[in-house]
UniProtKB/TrEMBL annotation:
Pfam families: H_PPase. Sodium pump that utilizes the energy of pyrophosphate hydrolysis as the driving force for Na(+) movement across the membrane. Homodimer. Requires K(+) for maximal activity. This is Putative K(+)-stimulated pyrophosphate-energized sodium pump. The chain crosses the membrane at residues 6-26, 57-74, 80-102, 123-156, 275-296, 308-327, 347-370, 391-415, 421-442, 486-508, 520-544, 585-603, 615-633. It comes from Pontibacter lucknowensis.
């Protein structure tokens, strides 16, 4: 068993080694002429200034949260003060993940632009190398952090006491490990919301004044907000996304480990197999993602999307094969979780279900957001009759786009549960997230290519250079949209697994909707994603308004700016976005963190027949269902609006007439895209973190609000006989010594 435990952080170290080597390769590439490096330096300085300001504020948050966690851990019987250390490590690793992404993206963007002067193939190599650094860095940090911390906690709490995996000590060890996920998701929420506010404030301001009012192209150096817009690509789509997927990755693995603790099984690893399996599959996913990356190549004039799909499919296929052997090597033939019997084959089927659901969600998302498809075309056609009909069409597409994904998600939940119970639902999410390194590499290369196009435009490089970066950018827009669908599916499955873990630890056997307090909690939970979205979208609106006023002022007061002889004050626009993002991200983040604590502790003992844990369970159910639907609606509506606008750049036929950029229909599509920007890049993606973070906070406080706890199974020589008398259907005769290995405390 020790060999497997030590192998898990080894996977993480290997990923970080690849990150270091690939990052060095990107840095060695040519960075272009003086004008290009100057623009890239402005972008890098703005990005790092935001990150520094954000992390300074988050430092104080970590200190305050650590004090609260120390109190809980010190006073709680089923927790420990070391949860503070796990929380700080999780927050630190999440911050490092964002920093790695920001650093490599601001180096790869200008080098991609320079590579595009040579060929499309070379530009793809550089931009995807930057994305792979991000992907491997995030996966490596997650597996290294979880694996190493689990080893330390296992030896400190379990091995050093009695080595009994079934005892109270393992429960405490996993409760402390939950702190790592809480730290990761907390930083992720602030990074995603803050980054989203920054990037969309700059984007909306640049579009409204630059494109609509002044009639100048995107990324035109005359636009004072263009540097802030390009900084925003890194702040929101790279650093924010990196912290987001780091938190998702960790939460998925942790949820499976917590449920694995309750699995009754016979295995050759001391009862640890169901706990170790999700970490081991994640480690294999790193290896197979690396192999898939080797196949991403494209010739000049080739299909970039096909090349990325090939690498992704190879990673997914290898992960499925690797998971089969890992499952049958680690797990026994028969297992039981809360009176649900399942087999190792059932666990493998659940992993396959997770991979299929993730793939289908990506395909469906692409259909609703891709250029040339019916949903986007409907928005294009209705743009011809004005701004209002464009908005109406986009809202309709976003709402309609929830139907198929929910059906797929519901089918995935039912099938994975039928295959392996609640453990199957959790392992399905873990299997889906196993290739996070590849998924994030594909997602992150898009913003790098987008930045490269902006640098090419501002540096006045030849048109064929911008043409090559536009090809990469178009693919990046598609991968970004499909990546959001993938992230929503994983968040839904992970939240369900976290919810199941919460129910077990809190000691509630059921959540009764006939009880008025529980129903009230359900409605309040369903409301939270709406108020969260309202705050995020309003924040973008306020910041964008300040940006618009500043850009208009510069156009009005700086002589020669429209003629190209005057120098815009880029840094003032960067400062506006930075201050707005830092100020506005606090309240939405506080809601996600404080509401579960208030409900969990505030309603203890208030209702005689309804424990606060049950009310909190109703709240989580409402948040999860409402949040998943809001995430789908907003992300898909925003993506469809965006590509409807981009359709006019190539020219579209409306009522027998070709419409291009600058037409009235195009201006209507720009309005729709502007409305959709905070949908798809601020509030929509934040929904995923919101529902997971509230579940994790609830899981952390669950031991402190538990209503009843099933004691650890006592160590008696005739344990099989005792368990058979209590729950004969859940017990297997295992060995001549009449002992059973139970990876958990409860077997309902």
């Amino acid at each position: 068993m020790e060999t497997i435990l030590y192998a898990i952080p080894g996977f993480g170290l290997a990923a970080l080694l690849y990150t270091f080597i690939r990052s060095a390769w990107v840095t060695k590439q040519a960075a272009g002429n003086e004008r290009m490096t100057e623009i890239a330096r402005h972008i890098a300085d703005g990005a790092m200034a935001f990150l520094k300001a954000e992390y300074k504020v988050l430092f104080y948050f970590v200190v305050i949260a650590s004090i609260f966690l120390f109190y809980l851990g010190y006073t709680g019987e089923n927790s420990h003060w070391t949860i503070v250390i796990a929380f700080i490590i999780g927050a630190l690793f999440s911050a490092i993940a964002g920093f790695i992404g920001m650093r490599i993206a601001t180096k790869a963007n200008v080098r991609t632009a320079e590579a595009a002067r040579t060929s499309l193939s070379r530009a793809l190599n550089v931009s995807f190398a930057g994305g792979s650094v991000m992907g491997m860095g995030v996966a490596g940090l997650a597996v290294l952090g979880l694996g190493s911390l689990f080893i330390v906690l296992y030896y400190f709490f379990v091995y050093s006491v009695n080595g009994n995996v079934n005892g109270h000590e393992m429960e405490v060890a996993l409760e402390v490990l939950t702190g790592f996920s809480l730290g990761a998701e907390s930083i992720a929420l602030f990074a995603r919301v803050g980054g989203g506010i920054y990037t969309k404030a700059a984007d909306v301001g640049a579009d409204l004044v630059g494109k609509v009012e002044a009639g100048i192209p995107e990324d035109d150096p005359r636009n004072p907000a263009t540097i802030a817009d390009n900084v925003g690509d890194n702040v929101g789509d790279v650093a924010g996304m990196g912290a987001d997927l780091f938190g998702s990755y960790v939460a998925t693995i942790l949820a499976t480990m917590v449920l694995g603790r309750e699995v009754v099984s016979q295995d050759n690893f001391g009862g640890m197999a169901p706990i170790i399996l999700p970490m081991f599959i994640a480690g294999l996913g790193i290896v197979f993602s690396l192999i898939g990356m080797l196949f991403i190549r494209v010739k000049e004039g080739g299909n970039v999307q096909a090349a990325l799909n090939l690498g992704n499919w190879i990673s997914v296929a290898l992960t499925a094969v690797g998971a089969y052997f890992a499952i049958h090597w680690l797990l026994p033939e028969n297992m039981n979780l809360r009176n649900f019997e399942f087999t190792s084959n059932g666990v493998f089927i659940a992993v396959i279900v997770g991979l299929v659901v993730g793939t289908l969600m990506s395909i469906i998302t692409e259909y609703y957001t891709a250029m040339g498809k019916k949903p986007v075309n409907s928005i294009v056609q209705q743009s011809s009759t004005g701004h209002a009909t464009n908005i109406i069409a986009g809202l309709a597409v976003g709402m309609h786009s929830t139907v198929l994904p929910i059906i797929v998600l519901a089918a995935g939940i039912v099938l994975s549960y039928a295959s392996a119970g609640l453990y199957g639902v959790a392992i399905a999410a873990a299997g889906m997230m196993a290739t996070t390194a590849m998924q994030l590499a594909i997602d992150a290369f898009g913003p790098i290519a987008d930045n490269a196009g902006g640098i090419a435009e501002m540096s006045e490089l030849p048109k064929e250079v911008r043409g090559r970066t536009d090809i990469l950018d178009a693919v990046g827009n598609t991968t970004a949209a499909t990546g959001k669908g993938f992230a929503i599916a994983s968040a839904a499955l992970t939240s369900l697994a976290l919810f199941a873990a919460f129910v077990g630890i809190a000691g509630i056997s059921s959540i009764d909707l006939y009880k008025a307090p529980v129903l009230a909690g359900l409605f309040i939970g369903a409301m939270i994603p709406f108020i969260f979205s309202a705050l995020a979208i309003a924040a973008v609106g306020r910041a964008a308004m300040a940006m618009v006023h500043e850009v208009r002022r510069q156009f009005r007061e700086i002589p020669g700016i429209m003629e190209g002889t005057g120098q815009p004050e880029y840094e003032k626009c960067v400062a506006i976005s930075t201050k707005a993002a830092i100020r506005e991200m606090m309240l939405p983040g506080a809601i996600a963190l404080i509401v579960p604590v208030v409900v969990g502790f505030g309603f203890r003992g208030v209702f005689d027949e309804t424990p606060s844990a049950e009310i909190l369970g109703g709240l989580l159910a409402g948040v999860t269902v409402s949040g998943v639907l809001m995430a789908m609606f907003q992300s898909n509506a925003g993506g469809a609006w965006d590509n409807a606008k981009k359709s006019f750049e190539k020219g579209v036929e409306i009522n027998g007439k070709m419409e291009y950029k600058g037409s009235d229909a195009h201006k209507a599509s720009v309005t729709g895209d502007t409305v959709g920007d905070p949908f798809k890049d601020t509030s929509g993606p934040s929904m995923n973190i919101l529902i997971k973070l509230m579940s994790i906070v609830s899981l952390v406080i669950a031991p402190h609000i538990a209503t009843e706890r099933t004691p650890a199974i006592p160590e008696e020589p005739n344990l099989n006989m005792q368990l058979e008398q209590e729950a004969p259907s859940t017990v297997q005769h295992i060995n001549p010594e009449n002992t059973v290995i139970v990876a958990g405390l409860t077997a309902r």
